[in-house]
């Protein structure tokens, strides 16, 4: 297949949009802002889900399922929460269609109007805390550690496949605790889980930090986040974990009897990652030839392409390949043997390059004669000839090495693209000419943050965690600051 | 814990409703008709999903994801389809909330009215076939074998946990084929997969059949179904598989170029099972002591309860139990060691009986002295003392035996509750006094079917597959019939 993929240099945004569609990951649907996730894209998402779900369960969480709909009055109970979500809500107002009396077609039945409108969940804090009120009476019911895999809807005006869609898939953890400290520990624990997943499964380095007040989740006391850097120098928020204080417990009157018999409001967290991670994954590693997938998330880890003339040669190759496929599968490696007779090897090579399959084996008559395979790795595109006896260990080595190598490449890229600046002029110059994360002192006020955003379109991505105190002055106002924060233009 | 569960004899319906809540499976939410699936219930559903998902993939299907919303005009394209679903649709009409100008709260913003209303999917044929038009051009694109795990909404007026809820979780397979035969084969294959799952995982015997015209899926040419029998003698439709003919291909103009280069409409199937299976599972096996779960779907297969006085005894027991837990887990058996100090053994026994844990081990001081465990099986409630050396093999035996035993029990019950009748009077008498499936001759007309339903509330559950031709006369009209069909009152 011919790829016809725009180059990143030429138009990064166009490259991304084309790649998502051409690699069979997703496409726009007939419903404004809603995407169809195609089988190949969904298979990657399933791998992400499986890894995350295991990590959640290993840290003591259980899955449950809460309603898709949220009564308007629930959403309204936490003031800053509704303020944050009201502008982008899909609202169900009726529960029936009927035939128009003039015979012109199907219309909404005006008599089937709901007494109270229902909001399609943009996030589930309100419906879940309404439920937790029934579940939590005593300290013995705590902590409550629950996660939900679900679809959510936020009526975004400008949408992009995976990065910003009206409907998206995600998981949302919602936990309840007896003490403030325990809830903060949970929020931080889950941030760590996300960072671990991003770095060790997605091979995507992330900065862990906290959001400034203006970027905080609507209803949170503190929002923790992981921020990744894309190849075009823009940042992408890849996951958030919120310490919600007692805000939702108060709004929904959720109290527990402590060991001492006192009635107290419960402390809460919530945390989520979404199909947005697919966008991050694509943009972190892929190149002008197509997708580059980390072996741990690749639906097909190894593809084997036979190169033959006539069915006799194909049969001989297939006989040679069969035990190899079996051996690899027994080791838990996912292998595809592409013996389609409808496409040429060159077409297949292009297709699997485009789809980011980490390791490609080819075998033709000469290989058959020599007892070899041609082994190609997707990350560096390097090819080599390997003896049949060594091919399994070679593949195992490559799957491990590609995972490490693309992480290192992304890590080095990020390292080169974190720039410390000490003046606003320098800041603007770096932002304009280089992009990436800019580490700078800021006076901690909303006003300055807003001014910087208005003037440069850069936002504070996070106040990094675990960074040493450094006395300095705000690059804009000259007021004192004791920590550098990370700015960037962002997705 | 005290169970306080209504007896089945007393009020089967009340027993069910109480059991679902008391066993921590699900509960009603604040949103009319929508349930909350609690962690224990969801864990069972996850086991069902995992087994089904593997069966779908083993038969060549891939997962994908399509939008939650369906534009009204899509739903309207297939006439009988919209007719079937229009009366129970949740309709999104607006995309924004705002503060009421009089300060009284949050209202739907009248200026944010959608040009075209969106229906929350009651099933996805229309949005999926709109997509398939883009995916299918040639016979090379066929068959297209796709499944989706999703939530759907049907605005039911009378709802019951798991059995009939406004929102429910399900999977829906949607396949496209080049020939009529291939599509029919697929619909039958998936019916077989469902029957296999019901019998071998849920331990629930099912009758495979086809629906009569009046009970057919809206838009289908033929609806295949599996029907199970509940302990109160009512039938429950547990899964359906539809041969859709070319109805959706024609409505959405999906054509493919055949090998001969002719443009032809594509043939289709769809098939689904839902969280309704949870209701079927509960009602098939459970008893007056609570849930009875088949070992293959039990989130906890073995629970171990220590019986002790003082922490010294508990420590000694815990030391004894630890290697057993490890050994069982290594064999893939899910074990819970319940060493909570806040509850007495009797409370725990009741709790795990209520929750249907297949095997319960208890160990106290006397067992410690004798090197034994007390082993109890949930299905028969039989207890015995087993030497520590034999306990692992005993558990393995029991997990297998319970799975078989509850299937046999359900099978025998169904066998006793299939009654052949040859007159309408006999039919009414059996229906009234015994219930169950009634096998009778019927003349094949809608009119007779409707009359029987109006007069007796029984419906034709299915025309069974694989049953021999038997000449007879309709029990109502005396007209000729060549096959018995199954009637029952149903959920």
Distance between the termini of chain A: 31 Å
Spatial order of the strands in the main sheet of chain A? 3-9-10-16-13-12-11-24-27-23-22
Approximate helicity band of chain A? 25-40%
Mean pLDDT of chain A: 96
Which class do the helix and strand fractions of chain A yield?
alpha+beta
CATH class placement of the largest domain in chain A: Alpha Beta
What is the oligomer described by this structure? homodimer
Rg over alpha carbons of chain A: 26 Å
In CATH terms, what is the architecture of the largest domain in chain A?
Answer: 2-Layer Sandwich
* Pair of chains with the largest interface and how many residues each contributes: A-B, 63 and 63 residues
Gross morphology of chain A is: globular
Q: How much of the sequence of chain A is in beta strands?
A: 25-35%
Q: Regions of chain A with pLDDT < 50 over 5+ consecutive residues?
A: none
Q: For the report, how would you describe the main beta sheet of chain A?
A: 11 strands, mixed
The CATH topology label of the largest domain in chain A is BirA Bifunctional Protein, domain 2
Number of domains of chain A: 3
Question: How would you name the CATH homologous superfamily of the largest domain in chain A?
Answer: Bira Bifunctional Protein, Domain 2
| Strands of chain A, total number | 27
Helix tally of chain A?
14
């Amino acid at each position: 297949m011919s790829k016809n993929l725009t180059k990143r240099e030429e138009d990064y945004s166009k490259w991304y949009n084309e790649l998502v569609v051409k690699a069979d990951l997703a496409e726009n649907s007939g419903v404004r802002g809603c995407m169809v996730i195609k089988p190949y894209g969904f298979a990657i998402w399933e791998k992400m889900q499986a890894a995350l779900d295991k990590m959640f369960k290993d840290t003591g969480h259980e899955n449950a399922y809460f309603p898709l709909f949220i009564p308007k009055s629930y959403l309204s109970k936490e003031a800053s929460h509704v303020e944050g979500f009201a502008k982008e809500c899909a609202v169900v107002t009726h529960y029936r269609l009927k035939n128009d009396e003039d015979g012109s077609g199907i219309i909404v039945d005006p008599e089937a109007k709901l007494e109270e409108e229902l909001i399609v969940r943009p996030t589930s804090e309100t419906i879940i805390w309404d439920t937790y009120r029934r579940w939590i009476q005593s300290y013995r019911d705590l902590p409550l550690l629950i996660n939900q895999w679900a679809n959510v809807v936020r009526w975004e005006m400008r949408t992009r496949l995976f990065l910003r869609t009206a409907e998206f898939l995600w998981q949302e953890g919602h936990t309840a605790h007896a003490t403030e400290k325990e809830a903060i520990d949970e929020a931080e624990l889950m941030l760590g889980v996300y960072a671990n997943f991003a770095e060790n499964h997605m091979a995507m380095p992330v900065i862990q930090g906290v959001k400034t007040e203006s970027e905080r989740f609507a209803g949170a006391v503190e929002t923790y986040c992981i921020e990744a850097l894309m190849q075009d120098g823009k940042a992408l928020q890849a996951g958030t974990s919120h310490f919600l204080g007692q805000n939702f417990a108060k709004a929904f009157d959720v109290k527990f009897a402590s060991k001492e018999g006192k009635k107290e409001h419960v402390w809460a967290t919530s945390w989520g990652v979404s199909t947005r991670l697919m966008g991050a994954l694509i943009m972190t590693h892929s190149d002008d030839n197509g997708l580059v997938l980390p072996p741990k998330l690749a639906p097909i880890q190894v593809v084997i392409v036979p190169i033959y003339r006539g069915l006799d040669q194909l049969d001989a190759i297939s006989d040679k390949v069969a035990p190899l496929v079996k051996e690899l599968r027994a080791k838990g490696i996912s292998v595809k043997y592409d013996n389609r007779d409808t496409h040429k090897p060159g077409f297949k090579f292009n297709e699997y390059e485009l789809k980011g399959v980490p390791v490609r084996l080819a075998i033709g008559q000469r290989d058959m004669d020599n007892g070899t395979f041609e082994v190609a790795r997707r990350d560096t595109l390097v090819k080599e000839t390997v003896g049949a006896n060594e091919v399994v260990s070679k593949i195992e080595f490559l799957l491990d090495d590609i995972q490490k190598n693309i992480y290192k490449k992304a890590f080095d890229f990020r390292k080169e693209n974190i720039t410390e600046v000490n003046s606003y002029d320098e800041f603007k110059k770096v932002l304009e000419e280089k992009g990436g994360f800019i580490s700078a002192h800021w006076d901690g006020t909303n006003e300055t943050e807003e001014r910087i955003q208005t003037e440069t379109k850069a936002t504070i991505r996070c106040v990094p965690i675990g960074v040493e105190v450094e006395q300095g002055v705000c690059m804009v106002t000259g007021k004192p600051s004791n920590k550098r924060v990370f700015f960037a233009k962002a997705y």
